[in-house]
Task: structure prediction
Amino acid sequence: MAAPGGLGRCVAAFWLALAFDALGLAVLLAGVFADVFFSDLLIYAGGIGIFLSLIWWVFWYAGNLEVPPEELRDDVGLAAPKGRGDTLLRRLVHGLSLRLTTALGPARPADMELQRPAGPRGRPAEPGR
Result:
């Protein structure tokens, strides 16, 4: 369903694309017709600006595509998962995750031993310093 203004659902992408087109064209034409020593820079910058507007045009077009919900479902004929979708892969990954967390366990500050910083040339630092 299109927006009432006729621009679709991605109005911001539309206006950004138009702005990049207009700015790129203005810079490009300034490089062609202005008599400045950096006209080649303006020509390249204008071309790059027009090229970057293509990104906004693709965003606008892709944002306005309408796909019926029936086509969004899995297209290989698999049934949708019921409930949480406890598949064999999900159970294997969950079991592996549990084993890794119990084996590695989080480091607790009480388990760590504090060490004094070493002084010059690897000698222990003096307690008064």
The chain has a mean pLDDT of 79. The chain is about 55% helix and 0% strand. The longest helix spans residues 39-63. The radius of gyration is 31 Å.
